[in-house]
Amino acid sequence: MSDLLAFVAIGFRHITDLAAMDHILFLLALAAVYRGREWRDALWVISAFTVGHSMTLALAVTGTLPLSAPVVEFLIPVTIVATAVANVAESGRAARQRRGTYRAVLAGVFGLVHGAGFAGYLRSLFVDPIAVPLFGFNVGIELGQIVVLAIIGAALAAIDWTLRRAGPLHPAASPLRLRVMTLSLLVGVVAAEWAVERRPW
Length: 201
Prior knowledge:
The chain is built from eight helices and no strands. By secondary structure, it is an all-alpha fold. It is globular, with a radius of gyration of 18 Å.
């Protein structure tokens, strides 16, 4: 039990540490398009991300899926940029109504990449057996992710409240659209810079 809790703590610290800012920015990009009353939609998308990264984490850690660390580190910010672009493209009301399940699929596929990123860190912490470290680390990641998402949700609510209080800055721009566009552009620019810095060629 002590080993399990130790790896839960390691996973929790890994996702909440500022050194994991790429994963945190990805969660921010995923959550940026949702309002408080859309928490079920947000939960569906985050669950898809969890399934994706859990699968690759298990495969990569066990050696079933050998991956190139430089390529994975490059692809992680690429997923953030792609999510930010999708946010901007769907920021209108009609686009939000059409998004259906594609956003969950997007999160699940991108979760595969992020799981490979987690695996590189976890693999350096143990030799054998792997079941307890893998399960504990994954639980810790999920708990940390919940904390990160709660903080993001509170921050988004505060931004929305501030924008509503400030009044319309442009007749065609709702507070939600303004928030989504601004956050997505900022996150996309930061992630694009990381992708350029990490390019494996």
